[in-house]
Amino acid sequence: MTPNDTENFNNLIAPLLASLGNTAMLIELAALIGIGILSWFAVHRLKRRLGDTDTLPIPLADSDWSRLVLPLGLLAPVLIGRAVLAHWQSVHLFNLAVPLLLSFLAIQGCFYVLRAILKPSRVLQTVERMVSWLVWGVFALHLTGYLGDVAATLHGIGFHVGKQYLSLYTVLVGLLSLAATLVLALWLARTVEQRVIGAMPVTGNIRLALSKLARTVFVVLAVLVALPMVGIDITVLSVFGGALGVGLGLGLQKVAANYVSGFTLLLDQSIRIGDMIQVNEHYGEVKEIATRYTVIRNRTGIESVIPNEIMVTSPVINRSLSDRNNQVRLPVQVAYRTDLDRVRELLTPVVADHPRVLPEPAPQVRLARFGENGIDLELVFWIADPELGEGRLRSELNWAVWDTFKREGIEIPYPQRVVHMANAKSQPD
Question: Domain 326-408, what architecture?
Answer without folding.
Answer: 2-Layer Sandwich (3.30)
